[in-house]
Write a structure and sequence with these properties.
The chain is of the alpha+beta class and about 80 residues long. It has a single domain, classed as Rossmann fold (3-Layer(aba) Sandwich), CATH 3.40.50.150. It is about 40% helix and about 10% strand. It is built from three helices and two strands; from the N terminus they run αβαβα. It has helices at about 20-30, 50-55, 70-80; strands at about 40-45, 60-65. Helix 1 (about 20-30) crosses helix 2.
Length: about 80
């Protein structure tokens, strides 16, 4: 899907705060249950907006996805 469409599940669509509304709910929940040295794994991360936002808040984050295409696109976007 990521080879033919740039954003097949509208994961990059943002609200006024700059985040997908569903992501904001997840981020708020993660903040509430944070423990010291908590590690987070996002399975099927696609474009890893949640992982990246958690990383910016000093979480240790890992993400995985089956699509090599989206992984390469994400590396380019985040590392640039």
């Amino acid at each position: 899907m990521y080879q033919k469409f740039s954003d097949p599940w509208k994961l990059l669509k943002k609200d006024k705060s700059g985040l997908n509304l569903n992501y904001q709910v997840i981020l708020n929940y993660c903040e509430k249950i944070r423990f010291s040295k908590t590690k987070t794994l996002e399975i099927g991360c696609g474009y890893p907006q949640i992982s990246y936002e958690l990383y910016k808040k000093n979480f240790t984050v890992y993400g995985t996805d089956i699509s090599k295409t989206v992984i390469e696109k994400s590396k380019k976007n985040i590392l640039n």
